Amino acid sequence: MDDFIAARSQMALSLGFHIIFSCIGMVMPFFMATSHYLWLRTKNPVYINITKAWSKGVAIFFATGAVSGTVLSFELGLLWPKFMEHAGPIFGMPFSLEGTAFFIEAIALGFFLYGWNRFHPWFHWFTGIVVGVSGLASGILVVSANGWMNSPSGFDYLNGQYLNIDPIKALFNDAWFSQALHMSIAAFVATGFAVAGIHAYMILRKRDVRFHLTAFKIAVVYASIAAILQPLSGDHSAKDVAHRQPAKLAAMEAHFKTGKRVPLIIGGLPDAQNEKVDYAIEIPGGLSFMINGDWNSEIKGLDQFAEQDRPPVLITHIAFQIMVGLGMFMMLLGIFYLFVVWKKKRWIEQKWLLWLFTAATPMGFIAVEAGWTVTEVGRQPWIIYGIMRTADAVTPMPGIAYSFYLYTAVYISLSVIVTFLLYRQIKMVGKLYGTSDANT
Amino acid sequence: MLYVVIFYLWVAILFYLLFAGADFGAGIIELLTSKKNRNKTKRTMYRAIGPIWEANHMWLIITVVILFVGFPKIYSAMSVYLHIPLTIMLFGIIARGTAFTFRHYDAVEDEMQLLYSRIFELSSFVTPLFLGIIAGSSVSGHIDPNANTFVDAYIYSWLNWFSVAVGLFTVAICGFLAAIYLIGEVADEHEKSRFIQKAKMMNIAAVICGSIVFMAAYAENIPLADWMFGNTVGISAISAATVSLILLWYFLYKGKTRILRVLAGFQVLMILGAATFRHLPNIIILKGGSYLSLIEHSGQEKAINALGWALLIGSVFILPALFYLIYSFQKNSVRASL
Ligand code: HDD
Ligand code: HEM
Ligand code: HEM
Questions:
Q1: Which of A359, A404, B49, B202 makes a 20 to 30 Å CA pair with B329?
Q2: Which tens digit of pLDDT belongs to each residue from A362-400?
Q3: Cα A207 from chain centroid (whole Å)
Q4: Are B86 and A70 in contact (CB under 8 A)?
Q5: pTM
Q6: How far apart are CA A228 and CA A97, in angstroms?
């Protein structure tokens, strides 16, 4: 394997691994706090059992998220030393603030996980909220750093030098808001559907039904609301991308030739060589309308960019279709669930509804991975958009392929162990919390 | 502001060495504990380091962030030439952190426990070893930007007697810190005397490794003795460390835990102080004697200012919360062990 490809793959692997844990770390504290709150208010033991069961899962995910994040902060330099040498001081602001957020998160987590029966119950509850809020804050900050790579600002680039650095401007770059909003909601969608799906499946298996049904109801409300908001935020992101990274938009939409009344392409296999898309459904003028609100407006195509400045179209387009497809499906499911709660309460325990949610378990996370693929592959060949090429940033050390294989092996083993542990946790719910149906 | 940032960098390294060091050391102590007592040690350890484990390793992240925001050239040079030991250290961190957590949170207790424990103990040794190797290499003068073979550029930069000796010394210090820390975490007299025994052993190991570091430095023409003894600050720090060592042994016999912790922390502070005072701000010494300096190779002023403010404001939030965390679990932990 070519060293450059290996470095990119290793970065993608590490980030793709970390993002799963960070989504859970950002969102689960809110789920736990909800159930914890219901316990403190109602003293119904099922709520405390759910809180405790979840907190054990979270501890496992948190540790994995923390170590994979630590690895990332080194990996940026290990793989892209030239990038970090110039970018570090400019986009470092979010990272230094993030340090504080992580620290607070880690401290609050210590209080929360180890503080049962040691502190005032509401203080203990509050530490859980602090974990969630600081997790969310750190997520927003890192995404702002990524936004800077998409939309660099806060410095002047003259003759290859980075002058007049302004870290605050870099933090509030053009991309930060749309990306941070979309990512925060995505974390709720992904974690919400995953948690709801697992509990739905356990209900279908008739295991500890009361426990799982209560847990399901908490998670699914968050998931549904987030899933409804997500396409709105996605629409905002797409308009934003059209404005700041037209090449990425063109790759997402597999839009080759600049023109007016540009169709929206759904599905299809882009063929970059011949600049056409096979097997696609086209909505005439759709893209023009989505971006500019005018069916006849002009949209820049890939032909506006030199050959060496174009992102890979195939991957970007397919990833985008996957994200949007899953997003639309989850939105419909969310709307439907809220309708059920409102009008048809008794459907909640129906098999087909639970099967629908079981099927949706991995969808949010798949959409997250796909979305990041759009953002990151769509930025290529640039590591800092328009300023530095990814190929110029890579480490001079040869043999990165071996490092990539090693990382792959480590992350695969970790995934296997974490899945195994989670499986055991869920299997033990009945024993640990005495919630088997015989007692209820 | 640059000096504020350098101060924070130094403190972050010191705290990482002290807190995470004690944390790594706990794994080393476990490794050296006989099978019979292992389970007990495991439980003590979990109670003692569980709640602060996450917070401890944040000091490393702060260190990294300060380096890449404030001193990007230094960060990038280390990332390139010390790629391999950094990677090994990272694998150590992954293995250790996850094994420690999995061991406790696995809902079923079976043979998996043994696997987690082996991984945990082994990585508790490897991680500080490579941490020390990285620190040693950065001042060893073996990093060669003009090297033209893979081995010269990426292997000999860290694989040399001096760096390895510093690595072993770091391991011994971690074990020592952990033993001292754990003495105060148990109430049972028998347990206590076991940890006192371990502390003595580790202290002797540290002194031996320390001497090896000096010998290796001498053999490789690294003016370590000059850095340490060639100036009054160095000499006073070393003398203070020696005096505190004698006091430490005295209190080890007495079993006075609080004083022991202070003394152990003080020793590490003095050693780090003596080792860095003379050549600070030059934290990377390259082959041929040129160096990368925290002052000459710092980032632009605005970046440094922003970083400094972020650190200052961050501390206002973090330090009180951290102390409260440590305080409340200290109080409870001693009570729980009674
Ligand atoms: C649960 C996950 C999820 C779902 C359902 C969606 N997205 Fe998304 N999307 C993400 C998760 C995500 C993400 C992983 O969070 C990304 C990657 C970078 C970012 O900021 O968010 C992303 C990026 C991203 C981008 C690129 C932003 C950029 O490069 O700055 C666009 C244009 C969209 N999304 C648009 C949409 C649309 C129109 C959706 C309609 C259904 C949609 N997304 C659903
Ligand atoms: C956690 C969610 C993220 C995922 C899943 C992700 C995914 C990816 C992928 C797939 C690539 C490879 C692109 C290619 O080379 O074709 C990549 C590259 C990269 N990403 Fe991200 N990314 C994420 C967030 C971030 C963030 C927050 C940052 C920085 C602050 C970042 C920095 C980088 C860098 C430096 C590269 C390598 C250079 C490049 O390929 O342009 N990523 N990422
Ligand atoms: C979109 C991308 C990212 C998001 C949303 C995100 C979010 C988070 C969150 C919420 C945590 C808390 C730990 C957990 O919940 O498991 C975490 C941990 C961490 N992340 Fe990320 N992260 C992202 C990418 C990155 C990148 C690119 C880096 C490094 C440059 C990084 C560095 C870290 C570190 C060092 C930790 C450990 C903190 C601790 O010990 O608590 N993250 N991340």
A1: B202
A2: 999 999 999 999 999 999 889 999 889 998 888 888 888
A3: 30
A4: no
A5: 0.89
A6: 31
Where are the alpha helices (H) located in A115-160, listed in sequence order? Answer: 121-150
Q: Are strands B291-293 and B282-285 parallel, antiparallel or unpaired?
A: antiparallel
| Among candidates A90, A398, A421 on the partner chain, residue whose Cβ is nearest the Cβ of B303 | A90
C-alpha to C-alpha distance for A240 and A436, rounded to whole angstroms: 51
Question: What number of residues does chain A have?
Answer: 440
In a domain, A170, yes or no: yes
Q: How far apart are CA A248 and CA A302, in angstroms?
A: 9
Smallest CA-to-CA distance from B113 within A315, A421, A383 is with: A421
pLDDT score of B334 more than 60: no
Question: What is the ipTM, given to two decimal places?
Answer: 0.85
CA of A193, nearest ligand number: 1
Residue A327: CB partners within 8 Å, gap ≥ 6?
A189, A227, A230, A231, A234, A367
Residues in the ligand 2 pocket, defined by CB under 6 Å: A 8, 11-12, 15-16, 18-19, 76, 80, 83, 142-143, 145-146, 372-373, 376-377, 379-380, 383, 390
Query: What pLDDT does residue B335 have?
Result: 47
Half-sphere exposure of B323 (CA within 13 A, CB side): 5
More confident residue, B145 or A104: A104
Longest dimension (CA), chain A: 75
Q: What is the DSSP string of A353-402?
A: HHHHHHHTTTHHHHHHHHHHHHHHHTTTTEEETTTEEHHHHS-S-S-HHH
Query: What is the enclosing helix (H) or strand (E) of A266?
Result: strand A264-266
User: Residue A367: which of A151, A193, A176, A215 has the closest Cα?
Assistant: A193
Instruction: State the distance from the centre of ligand 1 to the C-alpha of A245, rounded, in angstroms.
Output: 15
- The CA distance from B331 to B338, in Å, is 12
Which member of A67, A88, A93 has the closest CB to residue B310? A93
> For tokens 């079923």, what's the residue?
B108
Structural domain containing residue A212: 3-246+306-433
- The pLDDT value recorded for residue B275 is 73
Distance from chain centroid for Cα A57:
19
Q: Which of A78, A85, A167 sits opposite B86 (nearest CB)?
A: A78
* Mean pLDDT on A53-79: 88
Question: Do B85 and B130 touch, CB atoms closer than 8 A?
Answer: yes
Q: Nearest CA to CA, how far is A224 from chain B (Å)?
A: 30
A264 belongs to a structural domain: no
Q: Measure the CA–CA gap between A132 and A389, rounded to whole angstroms.
A: 36
Closest residue by CA, ligand 3 atom 24: A142
DSSP E strands, A68-186:
156-158, 161-163
Q: Tens of pLDDT along A71-115? A: 998 999 899 998 988 888 888 888 888 888 888 888 888 888 877
pLDDT, one tens digit per residue, over A287-318 is: 888 888 888 888 888 888 888 888 998 999 99
Q: What is the number of structural domains in chain A?
A: 1
A275 falls within a domain? no
Provide the token pair at B219.
Answer: 């053999």
Reported as type and span, the H/E element at residue A23 is helix A3-42
Question: DSSP secondary-structure letter at B19?
Answer: I
